[in-house]
Design brief:
Layout (H helix, E strand, L loop, with lengths): L2 H29 L4 E6 L10 E5 L3 E6 L5 E5 L12 E5 L4 E5 L4 E7 L6 E7 L2
Parallel strand pairs: 1-3, 2-8
Antiparallel strand pairs: 3-6, 4-5, 4-7, 7-8
Bound molecules: copper (II) ion.
């Protein structure tokens, strides 16, 4: 191999390396996009699974009712960012879902208004 060819190959290797770094950075940015976390109420469980979810501002929780009965999620009054109930899903019938995006950091305890032993918590961190 002559010197000129070797230099050319080295240049191509450098460009390919830079492209790989850019792809890696792009992948990192994609990983930081808002996520949706799933919380399931399984049949006859009377539980939110998982009961505690930790997420970042801009992320969402989607509750899935895999039970045969209706549930009604509500924030614990007086908690969360504002005066309004942050979490309130009153039409959470079997096979329905309810989604909420969290835009303010804080702790959001919630419970089922119909079955008060069902409790859960969403913890929202700064992004
Ligand atoms: Cu319930």
């Amino acid at each position: 191999m002559c010197d000129r060819m070797a230099r050319g190959l080295k240049r191509w290797a450098a460009i390919a390396g830079a492209a790989a770094v850019l792809l890696a950075v792009g992948g990192g940015l994609r990983a930081d996009e808002p996520k949706t976390y799933e919380v399931v109420v399984k049949k006859d469980s009377y539980k939110f699974d998982p009961a505690s979810v930790v997420l970042e501002v801009g992320d969402a929780v989607q509750w899935v009712n895999a039970d045969v009965r209706r549930h009604l999620m509500s924030s614990v009054p007086g908690t969360g960012a504002g005066d309004q109930l942050e979490i309130f899903c009153d039409n959470f019938f079997p096979e329905k879902t309810c989604e909420h995006t969290f835009n303010t950091p804080g702790r959001y305890p919630y419970f089922c208004f119909i079955h008060r032993q069902m409790v859960g918590e969403v913890i929202v961190l700064e992004r």
